Amino acid sequence: MRERIRLILLTLMLGTIIILKLFGLISTVIIPTLAMASILYFIILFYSMLGREKRLFDLLDILLLMLIIVLITITLHYLGGYESVFVYFYIIPILYASIAFTMAISLAMTTMVAVNYLLMILMEYYEILPHIPTFRYSSHYHFTWIPIISNVFLFYLTSLYCSLMSNIIKSQENIISDTNKKLIQSAKMAAIGQMASNIAHQMNNPLVGVLNISQLLLKKITPKHEHYTLIHSIVQAAQECKSIIDSLLKFSRPPSYKFKTVYINDVLVEIMNIVKLQSEAKNTRVELGLAPRMRGIRADAEQLKHALVNIIVNAIQAVPDRNGLIQITTIALPYKVTVSITDNGHGIPKNDLEHIFEPYFTTKSGSQGIGLGLSIAYNIIQEHKGSIKVQSDVTNFEKTGHSGTRITIELPYA
Fold it and tell me: What is the pTM of this model?
């Protein structure tokens, strides 16, 4: 879109130069210089369409707008000056600046338009430049400041309105993009959940048979039997496989929710007792910072507890064995509560951030999980009409030994 508008601006600039030359209002020496500049701009335009050197091209965009504003001012002077109807050509660079850049740059371009416009009028008013009347009016046109001030006001009003509308459109595009990502994530999880359910059901029956037979054999022999250790290992492996299959079935089967008013601080206090043994085993310090006088949220306490335990256990596994620190805080906002879980672990690589809520995605060893914890937590938070976001940076890990990850959960009040 921007490339098309740039071509229009470039065409406008070249057209203005040609018109000025036809009327003998511009020096012949300037023509080759402007032509070379236009060709250079066109080459850089093609280069930018390949997605390169964006900052350089933004700077050239601003220079092009400034040149167009000057050319419009020159054209305006020769087509009637302060009485010319072509004053609204100034709207073109103002519109482009409002769409392509920030509000500050748009207002700066508008100020340049106003300065050029007023400077030309003052020079004509004080007869520094000769006033050239248009065909519409006679040479006895009466000069008044009211339409001139109105035009300047219109320039700024156009700039502000277009900048605000452009920001709103960009915000809506971001919302649509986020919604599409969530839909894709939900579709992935639904498809993988169905597949996991089918596989789990097919594996569950023979696995139960293996587990029952091995347990029966274990009961019939004493610990001193030569095969006792071997059969005991079979029982442990079968139980571990059954635990994984149960997790798959729980993931694929939609849980039943019993919503009621729950206080998030109370839920976190209970969770501290659940994760206490795991945190102490890794010499990890878990700090709890609870906001006072928190309003209740509408939630299923057990399901919410399940989601938060998965996230906190994931953080405990990520921190170093010594000097590990996990900070859990709550913040009361006007319409929602925020739970922040921050660790000083090794962080999550940027390429992995968009995948961490996908089922079976994990960077841990097999003994620490199969990659369902965060997926289950994501589903539970979504069922509570909440949101979950992750911030992580691994750039400081090599220097400091830790970089940290922050997971922020937002839940609406009841």
Answer: 0.47
